[in-house]
Amino acid sequence: MKYLLLSLLLVASTLLAACSKENSAQPSAPAPAAPRIKLGFLVKQPEEPWFQLEWQFADEAAKKLGFDLVKIGAADGEKVLAAIDNLAAQGAQGFVICTPDVRLGPAIAARAKAKDLKLFSVDDRFLDKDGKAIEDVHYLGISAGKIGTSVGVALAAAQKKRGWTNADTAVIAVTYEELETAKERTDGAIEALKSAGFPAERIFKAPTPKPEIPAALDATNALLTQHGDVKKWLVCGMNDNAVLGAVRALEGRGFGAESVVGIGINGSDCIVELEKTKPTGFYASVLLSAKQHGYQTCEMLYRWVKDGVEPPKDTRTTGVLIDRSNFQKVLAEQGIKH
Ligand code: FCA
Description:
- This protein is of the alpha/beta class and about 350 residues long.
- Helices cover about 45% and strands about 20% of the residues.
- The strands form two sheets. A six-stranded parallel beta sheet has the order 2-1-3-4-5-11, with helices on both faces. Strands 7-6-8-9-10-12 form a six-stranded mixed beta sheet, sandwiched between helices.
- Bound molecules: alpha-D-fucopyranose (FCA).
């Protein structure tokens, strides 16, 4: 009996050993999945439709490519730095940012480096302490000069089409020259108007302290008090909100669609305006490619983190003119839901 038990035990242990040998010969179990990539997207004005649209496309990229996206509104330097710390604490690997102040560039770059986060700037390019663009920080922005030029060309064409004389007409350029991309836009528009033969002395700048409707409205009002003799106005600005502020100020003084042509930039912040049954002085806008600014920036950052593919240092995007006749069609084509 004793021997029988012993030999049974022996057989069982040999079998077990064979089994485990067989197991170890099997292909090894898959390695634990790499943690999901997490990326941040910080914007300076989360209330502006343009930035909401960028986020919408960033969300699409996250869904399609399979990473986690953390969207943060950061309206000042303190919030930006806190957001970077927060992203690092959450285990993120990088972030896209439209900074609230381009002079924060060196501080943002230093903090990102210290926290080992990859950095990609969008829309507003970082400046160094001497006010020069930081070319080392990856950037995607609009071809601001060219887009500004297209606004100026369209304003000149609209003036011609309406038969408004130079003597009756003047230009308001709502400027925000602290920001390179903004200055290039309004400079481009002004140059194009001059090239089309518009007199330089009838082009007036209304500097705004912030790229927001109320500030642009105040800046325009201050200008209008000095030019009571002008009958027709052409308006340009750094973006839709700058032009919308001017259009509202002009309405306050009795100038409507019959005596104002305003052309914005963004195309995202004027949809409600173009949908109004009665046309206003806000005539058209250059619709920018929010998909490139939201989706493509995230995709480039994701590939950089995941596969080590460094994005180009400087990418520029274009725009397309929209007005009441085509905006619905163009928005639909570009996948912009409203
Ligand atoms: C800047 C402006 C935005 C948008 C963007 C492309 O950040 O403030 O409104 O025009 O550039």
